[in-house]
Design a protein that fits this description.
171 residues; Nucleoplasmin_core_dom_sf; Jelly Rolls; mainly beta; four-stranded antiparallel beta sheet
């Protein structure tokens, strides 16, 4: 588990974007139209929640792909429960994501493959004192037809696509 790259860059909020634009389901195939950056945060008794959010004015599709949740070496031998709170439609309902204990299950990774969240999302340490490290990838994809800048994408992310540059996303 590598907790060194943090979503929280010291200012209390992520230095990353969100909002949707363009044609749903189509992405540009131009160079630098997709960007993936390592991301992570630490939850503990001193800071038991963290919200990953991105500015709405960035015209990029944003996803947070979770990879690993693990306990730090100083974690007490107690249950540590991490939950996520998704803000969808004004309702905020917590969903348990992982229950860890150093002597039994100090890390989860394989079960998180495929867990992709759309910001904003809040991680909360519901039980335990931590430290708990959450790591993953922040993925930004520029939609076809958008010309507004996306700071995570190369050259300001302001290149637009034509129909010949568009490839359907299979999946």
């Amino acid at each position: 588990c590598s907790p060194r790259v943090l979503w929280d860059r010291g200012g209390g909020s992520a230095e990353t974007p969100t909002s949707r634009g363009g044609t749903e389901g189509l992405f540009c195939s131009l160079p630098h139209s997709d960007t993936s950056l390592p991301a992570g945060c630490e939850l503990s008794s001193e800071r038991d929640s963290y919200t990953f959010q991105v500015p709405e004015e960035w015209q990029c599709e944003q996803q947070l792909a979770l990879r690993t949740i693990c306990l730090g070496e100083m974690a007490r031998d107690e249950f540590h429960v991490v939950e996520i709170v998704l803000a969808e439609g004004g309702a905020r309902s917590p969903v348990p994501l992982a229950t860890l204990k150093p002597s039994v299950l100090p890390m989860v990774s394989a079960t998180l493959m495929g867990v992709e969240l759309t910001p904003p999302v809040t991680f909360h340490l519901r039980a335990g004192s931590g430290p708990v490290y959450i790591s993953g990838q922040h993925v930004s994809s520029k939609y076809w037809g958008t010309t507004a800048p996306c700071p995570l994408l190369g050259s300001g992310g302001s290149a637009s696509c034509s129909h010949s540059d568009v490839q359907p996303v299979l999946g």
